[in-house]
Amino acid sequence: MKKYTAAFIKETKSKKILSEVLKRGNDDWVSCIAASNPHCPPEALSEVLKRGKDDEVSRIAAENPNCPPEALSEVLKRGNDDWVSYYAVKNLHCPPETLSEVLKRGNDDWVSCIAAENPNCPPEDLSEVLKRGKDDDVSNFAAENPNCPKKSSEMFSLLSLLKENGYTIEKVKSLIENA
Can you give the pTM of this predicted structure? Predict the structure, then answer.
Protein backbone atom coordinates (compact mmCIF):
# COMPACT_ATOMS: atom_id res chain seq x y z
CA MET A 1 0.00 0.00 0.00
CA LYS A 2 1.09 3.48 -0.74
CA LYS A 3 2.28 5.63 2.14
CA TYR A 4 0.75 9.12 2.40
CA THR A 5 1.87 12.13 4.35
CA ALA A 6 -0.39 13.84 6.88
CA ALA A 7 -0.22 17.06 4.83
CA PHE A 8 -1.40 15.24 1.71
CA ILE A 9 -4.28 13.50 3.52
CA LYS A 10 -5.39 16.78 5.07
CA GLU A 11 -5.77 18.41 1.64
CA THR A 12 -6.99 15.51 -0.48
CA LYS A 13 -10.54 15.33 -1.75
CA SER A 14 -10.11 11.74 -2.95
CA LYS A 15 -12.68 9.53 -1.24
CA LYS A 16 -10.80 6.50 -2.52
CA ILE A 17 -7.53 7.49 -0.86
CA LEU A 18 -9.24 8.46 2.40
CA SER A 19 -11.06 5.13 2.47
CA GLU A 20 -7.82 3.28 1.73
CA VAL A 21 -6.04 4.95 4.64
CA LEU A 22 -8.87 4.11 7.06
CA LYS A 23 -9.14 0.48 5.88
CA ARG A 24 -5.63 -0.11 7.20
CA GLY A 25 -7.04 -0.04 10.71
CA ASN A 26 -4.16 1.97 12.16
CA ASP A 27 -4.51 4.35 15.07
CA ASP A 28 -1.95 6.83 13.80
CA TRP A 29 -1.79 10.50 12.93
CA VAL A 30 -2.43 9.99 9.20
CA SER A 31 -5.56 7.93 9.94
CA CYS A 32 -6.81 10.57 12.36
CA ILE A 33 -6.43 13.24 9.70
CA ALA A 34 -8.23 11.03 7.16
CA ALA A 35 -11.12 10.52 9.61
CA SER A 36 -11.40 14.28 10.14
CA ASN A 37 -11.24 15.18 6.45
CA PRO A 38 -14.54 16.78 5.34
CA HIS A 39 -14.39 14.69 2.15
CA CYS A 40 -14.13 11.39 3.98
CA PRO A 41 -16.93 9.11 2.73
CA PRO A 42 -19.62 8.10 5.21
CA GLU A 43 -19.04 4.40 4.47
CA ALA A 44 -15.39 4.66 5.53
CA LEU A 45 -16.33 6.41 8.78
CA SER A 46 -18.97 3.78 9.45
CA GLU A 47 -16.41 1.01 8.96
CA VAL A 48 -14.08 2.64 11.47
CA LEU A 49 -16.85 2.70 14.07
CA LYS A 50 -17.83 -0.91 13.41
CA ARG A 51 -14.43 -1.96 14.78
CA GLY A 52 -15.74 -1.15 18.25
CA LYS A 53 -12.53 0.44 19.46
CA ASP A 54 -12.18 3.38 21.83
CA ASP A 55 -9.25 4.92 19.98
CA GLU A 56 -8.46 8.33 18.57
CA VAL A 57 -9.40 7.43 15.00
CA SER A 58 -12.83 6.19 16.12
CA ARG A 59 -13.40 9.31 18.21
CA ILE A 60 -12.61 11.53 15.25
CA ALA A 61 -14.77 9.43 12.91
CA ALA A 62 -17.73 9.81 15.31
CA GLU A 63 -17.18 13.57 15.38
CA ASN A 64 -17.08 13.98 11.59
CA PRO A 65 -20.30 15.58 10.24
CA ASN A 66 -20.24 13.01 7.39
CA CYS A 67 -20.64 10.15 9.82
CA PRO A 68 -23.92 8.35 9.06
CA PRO A 69 -26.63 8.58 11.74
CA GLU A 70 -26.94 4.77 11.72
CA ALA A 71 -23.27 4.39 12.63
CA LEU A 72 -23.66 6.87 15.49
CA SER A 73 -26.69 4.91 16.74
CA GLU A 74 -24.74 1.66 16.67
CA VAL A 75 -21.97 3.19 18.77
CA LEU A 76 -24.48 4.37 21.36
CA LYS A 77 -26.32 1.05 21.48
CA ARG A 78 -23.18 -0.40 23.06
CA GLY A 79 -24.03 1.57 26.20
CA ASN A 80 -20.48 2.67 26.89
CA ASP A 81 -19.45 5.86 28.63
CA ASP A 82 -16.32 6.37 26.54
CA TRP A 83 -14.91 9.08 24.28
CA VAL A 84 -16.25 7.53 21.08
CA SER A 85 -19.77 7.49 22.56
CA TYR A 86 -19.30 11.06 23.79
CA TYR A 87 -18.49 12.32 20.28
CA ALA A 88 -21.22 10.17 18.69
CA VAL A 89 -23.91 11.68 20.94
CA LYS A 90 -22.47 15.17 20.44
CA ASN A 91 -22.64 14.86 16.64
CA LEU A 92 -25.55 16.93 15.33
CA HIS A 93 -26.50 14.06 13.02
CA CYS A 94 -27.21 11.77 15.94
CA PRO A 95 -30.85 10.71 15.49
CA PRO A 96 -33.40 11.98 18.04
CA GLU A 97 -34.59 8.44 18.75
CA THR A 98 -31.05 7.45 19.68
CA LEU A 99 -30.76 10.43 22.03
CA SER A 100 -34.04 9.27 23.58
CA GLU A 101 -32.67 5.78 24.14
CA VAL A 102 -29.55 7.15 25.83
CA LEU A 103 -31.67 9.24 28.22
CA LYS A 104 -34.05 6.38 28.98
CA ARG A 105 -31.14 4.44 30.51
CA GLY A 106 -31.32 6.86 33.43
CA ASN A 107 -27.54 7.10 33.83
CA ASP A 108 -25.78 10.13 35.28
CA ASP A 109 -22.77 10.06 32.95
CA TRP A 110 -21.22 12.37 30.37
CA VAL A 111 -22.82 10.59 27.43
CA SER A 112 -26.27 11.19 28.96
CA CYS A 113 -25.40 14.82 29.72
CA ILE A 114 -24.41 15.47 26.12
CA ALA A 115 -27.55 13.68 24.88
CA ALA A 116 -29.62 16.03 27.05
CA GLU A 117 -27.69 19.00 25.66
CA ASN A 118 -27.98 18.00 21.99
CA PRO A 119 -30.34 20.40 20.14
CA ASN A 120 -31.95 17.40 18.39
CA CYS A 121 -33.15 15.94 21.67
CA PRO A 122 -36.96 15.67 21.67
CA PRO A 123 -38.73 17.99 24.16
CA GLU A 124 -40.76 15.16 25.66
CA ASP A 125 -37.56 13.29 26.58
CA LEU A 126 -36.14 16.37 28.25
CA SER A 127 -39.34 16.67 30.29
CA GLU A 128 -39.09 13.00 31.27
CA VAL A 129 -35.55 13.52 32.53
CA LEU A 130 -36.75 16.38 34.73
CA LYS A 131 -39.76 14.41 35.99
CA ARG A 132 -37.37 11.87 37.52
CA GLY A 133 -36.76 14.47 40.21
CA LYS A 134 -33.02 13.88 40.35
CA ASP A 135 -30.68 16.73 41.09
CA ASP A 136 -27.94 15.53 38.76
CA ASP A 137 -25.89 16.83 35.84
CA VAL A 138 -28.17 15.22 33.25
CA SER A 139 -31.16 17.11 34.65
CA ASN A 140 -29.23 20.38 34.60
CA PHE A 141 -28.28 19.87 30.94
CA ALA A 142 -31.88 18.95 30.08
CA ALA A 143 -33.25 22.05 31.81
CA GLU A 144 -30.80 24.27 29.89
CA ASN A 145 -31.62 22.78 26.48
CA PRO A 146 -33.63 25.32 24.41
CA ASN A 147 -35.96 22.46 23.38
CA CYS A 148 -36.97 21.81 26.96
CA PRO A 149 -40.59 22.80 27.53
CA LYS A 150 -40.67 26.02 29.51
CA LYS A 151 -42.99 24.61 32.17
CA SER A 152 -40.69 21.65 32.85
CA SER A 153 -37.61 23.86 32.97
CA GLU A 154 -39.24 26.36 35.33
CA MET A 155 -40.47 23.60 37.66
CA PHE A 156 -36.98 22.10 37.78
CA SER A 157 -35.48 25.52 38.57
CA LEU A 158 -38.01 26.08 41.35
CA LEU A 159 -37.36 22.67 42.91
CA SER A 160 -33.61 23.23 42.70
CA LEU A 161 -33.98 26.58 44.43
CA LEU A 162 -36.10 25.03 47.19
CA LYS A 163 -33.53 22.24 47.71
CA GLU A 164 -30.73 24.80 47.92
CA ASN A 165 -32.63 26.47 50.74
CA GLY A 166 -33.15 23.26 52.70
CA TYR A 167 -36.69 22.41 51.60
CA THR A 168 -37.66 18.87 50.67
CA ILE A 169 -40.67 17.97 48.56
CA GLU A 170 -42.35 16.65 51.72
CA LYS A 171 -41.68 19.91 53.58
CA VAL A 172 -43.16 21.96 50.72
CA LYS A 173 -46.26 19.70 50.61
CA SER A 174 -46.67 20.11 54.36
CA LEU A 175 -46.42 23.90 54.11
CA ILE A 176 -49.06 23.94 51.36
CA GLU A 177 -51.40 21.65 53.28
CA ASN A 178 -51.07 23.68 56.49
CA ALA A 179 -51.43 27.08 54.84
Answer: 0.81
